[in-house]
Amino acid sequence: MKVTLAKSGLKGELTVPGDKSISHRALIFGALAEGITEIENFLVARDTLATLNCLKKYGVRISRSKNQVKVLGTAQNFSEPKDILNAENSGTTIRLLSGVAATFPFVSVFTGDKSLRQRPMKRVLEPLSQMGAKVLARAEGNYAPFAINGGKLVGRDFTLKKASAQVKSALILAGLRASGTTTVTEPNLSRDHTERMLEGFGVKIERSGQTIAIIGGQKLYGQKVVVPGDFSSAAFFIVAALIVPESHLLLKNVGLNPTRTGLLTVLKEMGAKINLLNLRETGGEPVGDIEVFTSPLKAVEVPPEIVPAMIDEFPILAAAMAHAEGVSVVRGAEELRIKESDRIKSIVGEFSKMGVMVEELPDGFKITGGRRPLGTIVDSHHDHRIAMTLGVLGLTAVGSTEILNAEAVAISYPDFFVQLTKLLEGA
Ligand SMILES: O=C(O)C1=C[C@@H](OP(=O)(O)O)[C@@H](O)[C@H](O)C1
Ligand SMILES: C=C(OP(=O)(O)O)C(=O)O
């Protein structure tokens, strides 16, 4: 993919595709529920389709027409998959479904692509085996492929060392079918879509601060789920509009769950002119429109406690930092090293190629901003968020930027470059 210096600002309106986290959850909860679940504005992308295909292997009947999905609930009766479940590139798929697999008295074997097979799984597999599941995993219990032989689980109390919505959700899903009560305490609150949506499916969850408690043996009832636009996808256009001169953009119907919108807090501190309009609630999730104007930005130090609320937005935040006057610092974000790529290394390596002054830290990075990037050949490292970030940075670079392995955008946003081009042309 080739991106050239934007000749004009990003102008007009855009509706980004449905939220990835919420789409995964709607499929899984719909599959476990009694009755039919209808999902509107489902994200059609590789990660969410991986979840859909794994669920079909459990015997769940799912039909899809574009972004409308119908799930015929099994009332918690999955059948043993006759083949390996391939979560492809999706951490959310493999970790959430592990929590479900742990509750069924049969064998589920999981694998993923090269990236996913290098991402740590002990964080879910260990607590699931403490609840009573039998687990056999490669590399001393840490990597896929792995097999889970589930069964009668016993509720337990867990305190997570790091905030993780995937681990929390896997344990909630296991706890839902365990005896007694399961509690999960996080050091900071991670995204809470699981808690919100399960409540919509009729499940009682107790929440107090960073602790959630779930009593086992509860039923789920099929629902209509309307998926809001994905804030993490909107983030690329927010930053693009901030840094490309003469932009004025309206992003419509975006999920604004506060456990996801840490980027807005940080960008506002950097001087970004962003307005939230038409605030409302859809299916238990806050939603609104985001108006963005090109803004001069100043450097920022990201407070570590906000990291979980913007964990997927660090690549695109780095692009904003490259345009901010002064030295910006990210710390406490070592989780970035175990995403689809080592995102700290990917940012530092590719931004350096584009002439950005960036320094690697063990748990983050430092960027001295304000200098115009230079177009060159860069690589996504097969990571969707790095591909989109480089696409945005390329809009402000001198010359043209060629992004290798840009097709990675299909993981969460297949039409990203098409929509970006349209916004630029429509100006
Ligand atoms: O639960 C989810 O839907 C997700 C949780 C986060 O991962 P962790 O739980 O590993 O922090 C995030 O990075 C990922 O994109 C989606
Ligand atoms: C980390 C991500 O997803 P996952 O963990 O589901 O692969 C992401 O989408 O940035």
Précis, in short:
The protein has 13 helices and 24 strands.
Count the helices. How many? 13
- CA-based gyration radius: 21 Å
The chain-level mean pLDDT equals: 97
Full CATH superfamily name of the largest domain: Enolpyruvate transferase domain
Class of the largest domain in CATH?
A: Alpha Beta
Per DSSP, what share of the residues sits in E-state strands of 2 or more residues? 25-35%
Uncertain runs are: none
Largest sheet: 5 strands, mixed
* CATH-derived topology of the largest domain: UDP-n-acetylglucosamine1-carboxyvinyl-transferase, Chain
Give the bound compounds: shikimate-3-phosphate, phosphoenolpyruvate
Helical fraction equals 25-40%
Tally of extended strands?
24
The assigned structural class equals alpha/beta
Shape: globular
Q: How many domains is the backbone divided into?
A: 2
Termini separation comes to 21 Å
CATH architectural name of the largest domain: Alpha-beta prism
Description:
With 427 residues, the protein is an alpha/beta fold. It has 13 helices and 24 strands. It folds into 2 domains: 2-17 and 229-425, UDP-n-acetylglucosamine1-carboxyvinyl-transferase, Chain; 20-226, Enolpyruvate transferase domain (UDP-n-acetylglucosamine1-carboxyvinyl-transferase, Chain), CATH 3.65.10.10. Strands 18, 19, 20, 21 and 22 form a 5-stranded mixed sheet that branches. A 4-stranded mixed sheet has the order 2-15-17-16. Residues 47, 90-92, 312, 339-340, 385, 412 line the site of phosphoenolpyruvate. This is 3-phosphoshikimate 1-carboxyvinyltransferase.
